[in-house]
Design brief:
Layout lengths: L1 E7 L4 E7 L4 E9 L7 E6 L5 E4 L5 H12 L15 E6 L10 E2 L2 H10 L7 H14 L5 E5 L9 H4 L5 H7 L8 H15 L7 E7 L3 E7 L2 E5 L21 H10 L3 H10 L2 H6 L5 H9 L3 H25 L4 E5 H6 L1 H8 L11 H6 L5 E2 L8 E4 L4 H16 L1
The protein binds adenosine monophosphate (AMP).
Length: about 400
């Protein structure tokens, strides 16, 4: 089955065409800066040279035209006709409380996804535009929505509720949702394979550490708790996001600095985290280079981050009554042995004991970095959200037949 996976952001479209039977990626595309004069498309056909060129794409419709033209291009296309593509899987950020699984997109589903846009005003509208554009270019191809929030719908009420007056939950559905669900679910499944144990028996702590970062407690295959909340702002320190802070800080800054709600939103989401602490960059690689030269703020940023992850791991071990394995994934989790070592240091009381040699040797590939005798396995597993979305799309389309 050929599945086109689309991740439509507000100004970008990421695409991957996967052949699920062969287990191969036929082409990858990245369209950036939709609506801007310097809109640019990069297309990587499997086994052939990458092509990249400036394009004019004023919106997601013209953006998808660029993507589909590349896929069927006589010189570097992956298919002759778009009809060869069996299904389209969309990453949809917010499914609210309505979707605990991927679904076939129908008019009724679209109505609910539109309702959920109130909860994710920056993300869902772009996802909706992508779905509508596909309807125009590939009207007969089934489309599936795979939600970032769905995996976390198993989180029980006493964990997802904020201690606000209950009416705000009833009125606005103000609660913790959690994100990165597709990634946490994928690495949890992979961890069970690597450990050769049924996922249903395992207590896992999955750490998705990238520009956006979150930790999830996965008990018996289900998300029990996760660090992101009503929005992806809650939880860990991130590239440019604060993570957990005292909410009173927003009020304090609004008063002292005369900031508007939009300015506070910008400050917390785009100017904080690694970037805000260091004053330098949101990228850990830049901070490591600067810290090595004595940059004090880069150094402290690199200390704040692992402490927060460690604290979450400890709390989730408590929530699950123990932990069998900790999984590291995403940009930082897969590639930064120093960060993994800093996070794991001090967790020996839980049974964590990583082998420094194995840790150093494991970058961008799967591996068990714990010592033979460690009680808790520590695994590095590259995430693959596109593959997970494609598999979910296949499952939903086949079930609907
Ligand atoms: P992601 O959001 O998963 O793509 O992760 C992106 C982040 O991963 C970057 O901003 C870096 O902070 C981090 N990263 C990527 N490669 C490396 C590396 N080799 N060493 C340390 N951090 C890395």
């Amino acid at each position: 089955m050929l599945v086109l996976v689309l991740n439509c952001g507000s100004s970008s479209i990421k695409s991957q065409l996967l052949d699920l039977e062969r287990g191969t990626v036929l082409a990858k595309g990245l369209l950036e800066k939709i609506g801007l004069p310097d809109c640019f498309f990069t297309y990587e056909p499997s086994g052939r040279e990458t092509v990249s060129f400036p394009v004019e794409a004023k919106d997601h419709f013209s953006g998808l035209e660029v993507v589909t033209s590349a896929l069927t291009h006589p010189a570097y296309g992956a298919v002759k006709d778009l009809k060869e593509i069996d299904a389209i899987g969309h990453r949809v950020v917010h499914g609210g409380e309505k979707f605990s699984n991927a679904v076939l997109i129908t008019d009724e589903v679209m109505e609910v996804v539109e309702e959920c846009a109130a909860l994710a005003p920056l993300h869902n509208p772009a996802n909706i535009m992508g779905i509508r554009a596909c309807k125009r270019f590939m009207p007969d191809t089934p489309q599936v929505a795979v939600f970032d929030t769905a995996f976390h719908q198993t989180i029980p009420k006493h964990i997802f509720l904020y201690a606000l007056p209950y009416e705000y939950y009833s009125k606005y559905k103000l609660r913790r949702y959690g994100f990165h669900g597709t990634s946490h679910q994928y690495v949890a499944q992979k961890a069970a394979e690597m450990l050769d144990r049924p996922l249903e028996e395992l207590r896992l702590i999955t750490c998705h550490l990238g520009n956006g970062s979150s930790v999830t407690a996965v008990k018996n295959g289900c998300s029990l708790d996760t660090s992101m909340g009503f929005t992806p702002l809650e939880g860990l320190v991130m590239g440019t996001r604060t993570g957990d802070i005292d909410p009173a800080i927003a009020l304090f800054l609004m008063e002292k600095e005369g900031l508007s709600t939009q300015e506070v939103d910008d400050l917390f989401n785009k100017k904080s985290g690694f970037l805000g602490l260091s004053g330098l960059s949101n990228d850990v690689r830049d901070l490591r280079a600067a810290a090595a030269k004595g940059h004090k703020r880069a150094r402290i940023a690199l200390e704040v981050y692992p402490y927060r992850v460690k604290k979450r791991i400890g709390s989730y071990a408590a929530a699950m009554g123990g932990v069998d394995a900790i999984v590291f994934t995403a940009g930082i989790g897969e590639n930064d042995p120093q960060m993994r070592a800093d996070i794991c240091a001090g967790l020996e009381f839980l049974g964590v004991d990583i082998d420094p040699r194995k840790n150093k040797a494991t970058r961008g590939k799967a591996g068990d970095i714990s010592t033979e005798s460690a009680k808790v396995r520590v695994l590095v597993i590259p995430t693959n959200e596109e593959l997970m979305i494609a598999r979910e799309t296949k499952r939903v389309v086949e079930a609907a037949k």
